[in-house]
Model the fold of this input.
Amino acid sequence: MKETIKELDVSKLPPPQRHPLIFKTFDELPKGESFLLINDHDPKPLWYQFMHEREGQFTWDYVEQGPELWKVKITKKT
Done:
């Protein structure tokens, strides 16, 4: 059975709203749960921010890597 996870598409949001919403979504996840981040560019800067602010608390798995959409499954570790 395929896992159903919440999708968070930030590609249409103004850039200043993206990271706060992504971190809020992550912080509200129960441990062991995931969400799928959808973005219009490689969210590598976000990964660095996660490494700095939530080190050891998450996994980051690319599902799709461009050229138009990037999808990353972000999981809150248990």
